[in-house]
């Protein structure tokens, strides 16, 4: 059942004001009659033209809006100078109300362009259906304003213009929840490597569980790729790396490692390089983003280590790749564990906990319970030390000077970090990143 209706009047010209008012009145009347049981939210999208003498589009549309009492509380006119700005504002309203099923009523010749905007600004969480904005006979010249033929795929230059419009609008938005903050390790030499771990502040993601510097988009979440790209651009600007030479692991919760410059696997949780200026990244929202640096051979790596990847040895697999590919000496490799869920908050079913107990009993708390608490960081350290990494070359939450600690518990700090365990399926993601300086 439709949860929201979007009426697109954005492209209709000023010289047809009376017709637009009649058109809107008729459309709202139809919605009201068909929605007596479940009345959807209604958004009217229109253009706020620069230099217009009108006080506002809503005032201009008031004659058409009067009389719809059942829709009054759920009816909003959204005016903006670009379609991207108007549609993104409406997306915010939909997300505030957790609405996902939307009917778009618009001139037929604008449909294909609108689909391009929607494809960029929304994800598969949302369902859209389209209906033509019915034009009465004396209003047929409204169609003249539309530049396309019905059913025609937008030209590549039109798509590029839409992408540019969206990008410019997102770049203009203020950062949320304070300044962008990057945590850095004192273990990794900053004269050779650029690195850091992100927090949740300083981006433009507004959905509570994704706010504000979310750095991962998927079909199951409400943050579209364009928003994540803008968050990444802001991070790159603050950190000093090139977002066009940015490579993130393709998570499989296993132990495959990608060697930059060689054939890329379909999925991998570790990645290594000795190329300068290439930034490697691993996400984490409870799972550990692990960074690796060899200041002697000048090589680096990143890995995503959840409980499955930890058991499969993804961190040592990344180390071994650095040794075999770049001739690194095990004793030169530095490893830093980033913000991740701690043993204070993270529990697993008893059967899974047994695997961590086999690594070391200290990796499990309340082992005899149905859901013991697990220390994936300790397990990672133990496996790294057994593999040959020097204990002093590993930084995690066990360090003596807590002022140097960056391995915070993500679940314990909702103001600083995202947490899948804490926030549920629509969770945000931070990253650890590293590159070799030019």
TrEMBL record:
Entry EC number(s): 2.4.2.1, 2.4.2.28, 3.5.4.4
Gene3D superfamilies (alphabetical): CNF1/YfiH-like putative cysteine hydrolases (3.60.140.10)
Listed GO CC annotations: endoplasmic reticulum; nucleus; peroxisome
Localization recorded for this chain is: Cytoplasm; Endoplasmic reticulum; Nucleus; Peroxisome
For biological process, the GO terms are: inflammatory response; innate immune response; regulation of defense response
Pfam families in UniProt:
Cu-oxidase_4 (PF02578)
Give GO terms: molecular function aspect only: copper ion binding; hydrolase activity; S-methyl-5-thioadenosine phosphorylase activity
* Alphabetized UniProt keyword annotations: Acetylation, Cytoplasm, Endoplasmic reticulum, Hydrolase, Immunity, Inflammatory response, Innate immunity, Metal-binding, Nucleus, Peroxisome, Phosphoprotein, Transferase, Zinc
The stretch of residues making up the signal peptide is none
The UniProt catalytic activity note for this protein reads: guanosine + phosphate = alpha-D-ribose 1-phosphate + guanine; inosine + phosphate = alpha-D-ribose 1-phosphate + hypoxanthine; adenosine + phosphate = alpha-D-ribose 1-phosphate + adenine; S-methyl-5'-thioadenosine + phosphate = 5-(methylsulfanyl)-alpha-D-ribose 1-phosphate + adenine
Q: How does it assemble?
A: Interacts with FASN. Interacts with SDHA. Interacts with ATF6, EIF2AK3 and ERN1.
Which family does the record assign?
Answer: Belongs to the purine nucleoside phosphorylase YfiH/LACC1 family.
Name of the protein in its database record = Purine nucleoside phosphorylase LACC1
Q: Which organism is it from?
A: Eulacestoma nigropectus (wattled ploughbill)
